[in-house]
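Quick illustration, no need to memorize.
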Amino acid sequence: MAANNALLVTDINFDQIKANLQTYLSSQSEFQDYDFESSGMQTIIQLLAYNTYYNSIYTNFASNEMFLDSALIRNNVVSRAKMLGFTPSSARGAKATIFVQVFPPGSPSTVTIPANTQFNTSIDGISYKFLSPTSTVIEKNSSGNYFGDIVVREGEPVQESYTVSSTSPSRYILNNDNSDTDSLVVNVQQSSSNTALRNYTLATDLTAVNGNSFVYFLQEENDGRFEVLFGDGILGRKLTDGNIVKLNYNVTVGALTNGATAFTGPFTLAGNSTYGYRTTSKASGGAGAQSIDSIKFNAPRNYTAQNRAVTANDYKNILINNAPDLQTIAVWGGEQNSPPIYGKVYISVKPIGDTTITPSRKDELTELLKDRNVVTTQPVFVDPEFLYVVPTIDVRYNPALTSKNGDTLLNQVNSTMSKFNSNDLGLFARNFYLSEFIKKVDSIDQSVINVAVTEKMQRRFIPNMTIKQSYTLNFNNPINNPHAGHQYTISSSGFTLDGFTCYFDDDGNGNVRIYRLVDTRRVYVNEKAGKVDYNRGSFTVNTFQPTAFVGDSIKVNATPRDQVIKSIRNQIIQLADASVSITNNQTDAVEVRSRELAATIQVTSSTETGVTTSSTSGSGTSGY
């Protein structure tokens, strides 16, 4: 009788499976005298092991694809997200705003620019279409002129038609990759003989849908394409045989046309060959289809928000799901502002590949949130502010441990700063940790024996050179002031005042001073030009009117009190103006020194919209 020995099933490695099979068979009385190393028996055992191994791998893969967290195949991720009521966003075509002025013959009361009026832009020698999604009516103004803005959207227009038949049902699929569902217009024709069209709108609130609602539903199907579904007579109006479904939408190139400003208009506009136009808002908002990682991250959070904006995370999740062109989002209540502003929620966004979104894009996002947020709360979009970290880096290396020279190590340091900017900074809520930065620089080569880094914070502003104004720059991090009278924690780039090149510093007692240099000696022009709040981390200069400044902005530097520089609310931290020296430890000589802006894939702007300004009369804009 065969021995009752259990076969181990916990080992899934091929060699372990083969060994377990051989152990099991050798324990059976029928096979006690067999030579399992012979080619015949070994082939059979390997075949069984391979079969078991393949099945275990397949079972593991299949099990992983059953859950949103572990699924890797897009169709499976989308299917699991669908169970949470989440529809991934499609590719989006960029939008631009164009100001037009028409000179029609006669004196009509209005001029109508029809839908699908085409403008073109060229990028790298390739032409892309921008179409007006709807008609625009321009009224004659009191001066008898006709002008206004039209919004155009990038994409190649496509129409697909389906005839409804209960005996041979069709699926209403957008049969193109990169279909822009935001441009989708769904019309249903009564029949081939009755050409009357009924427009159907996307159902976004099921509580407002009944059996007679002319709505459609949207879901992503296989291979990233989208399917349009209609109601069953209970949720949404049911289609009848003979209806013709017409789907009009754009096929887009996504983010490729973002930033376009130069457009070529049609030969005639609204039938008029005499017209003028200019771009008032560059192309923005273009994006690719939502990624698998983004779907997995946002689907459960969208389910939690239930398509309403109450908490800060609700606002963030709604924007992430509906605006794939946004790279990073910060949301906070007005009560966190200084001074507090109640009844408002502040939202700051940074688009992919740019620093700010256009005013028209802000209007679109505000409209998106209007029906989802609390009635008593007003969403307000503000631009990001950039807080720059200016590092001074001294790298000491032992040339006996490497074949590299100082120039090569310098290039590696610059590359490390670039990666640090893009991977560790560049988004909201990403702080600068000095120890982490030193670790990254220290790891560039085994020959590096010491890395010394000091850093300053930097804000930038462009002053008004026609009138005197006061400016407040918020670092939102404590400024170093170990004791009263500790001077020069504030420094700046140069600017011209009364014919002299001048600079900012501080006296250590909270006063901003303006000085000029005479043979390297500081001669103070104004010893009470403003205030420094060391604890809050703010710099204010009063009644300031330079006649020129060095570079594209005035840069104000402040030494931080702490080694952690925090990103607060709408601040984005970036490395800039780095000074790097490479020192040979054997000779104690500085082999190479460089002072330059650290390379970064993030676009930064020297014009800071978050700078609080006020004129001498006291009027101005409030800060955040």
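Confidence is low (pLDDT under 50) at residues 597-610, 615-624.
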